[in-house]
Every structure is written in C-alpha cells, then in structure tokens.
Design brief:
115 residues; 37% helix; two-stranded parallel sheet; 5-stranded mixed beta sheet; alpha/beta; 7 strands; Transcription Regulator spoIIAA
C-alpha cells in the first residue's frame, strides 16, 4: 500500500482528498510529493490533506507539505487545506509556521466546504 489514498469530494468546486497513511518520513516523502505533482499535472487544483491516519510526521514530511502548498498556490491563492491532524501534529505544524499559510480543519467535510 502506498503512502496516500486519493479520493474526490465535491464542494463548491471539485476537491481532491489525499488521505495520508501511517508515517510521513524520509522513506516515503518523495512518493507523496510525486503523487501530488502527478495529480496536479492531471488537473487537480484544490486539495485537502487528511491526516487522520497519520501517526507521525517528521521534518521531511513537513517539508513535503510545504512543497505541495507552493506548487498548488502558484497563483497566490490557497489551494491546500489540512484536516484531522492529531493534536501533537497540529502543534508541530503550528510551531513550524505551516499554519500561517495552510488552514487546518477538524474534518475533511469542513475543509472541502472552505473552498
């Protein structure tokens, strides 16, 4: 099984949901970045990253989130939202400054509705 399960959601706009599996670390961050790049090249514009199944996130995982955010926000708008992080992951994202640029929601539905 890969690092991400992809599904689609429909809010006001179509949204791609990436449900990250297990840990995001040095061993699998490149797969996450490459999958996002492929989806973007295939037309994905808005993404929710669901962290409900993510048990840990290393600094390279945070870097992957930032890289994906930069790719999606080339037009200056916010096209990446995060949903369902564990409290300690939410704190890591806050301390690292990610939450200044990427909104975090308690549920995927709330994140999808925010677009």
């Amino acid at each position: 099984m890969g690092v991400v399960q992809i599904s689609q959601a429909q809010g006001r706009v179509p949204v791609t949901v990436f449900r990250l599996q297990d840990r995001i670390n040095l061993g699998n961050f490149a797969e996450l970045e490459e999958t996002a790049k492929e989806e973007h090249n295939n037309g994905m514009r808005d993404m929710v990253m669901d962290l409900s199944q993510t048990v840990s996130l290393t600094s390279i995982g945070i870097r992957a989130i930032v890289v994906i955010h930069k790719m999606l926000s080339a037009d200056g708008k916010k096209h990446l939202k995060i949903a369902n992080p564990a409290q300690y992951i939410r704190e890591m994202l806050d301390i690292s400054g990610v939450t200044q640029y990427i909104e975090i929601f308690d549920t995927v539905d709330q994140a999808v509705a925010s677009f």
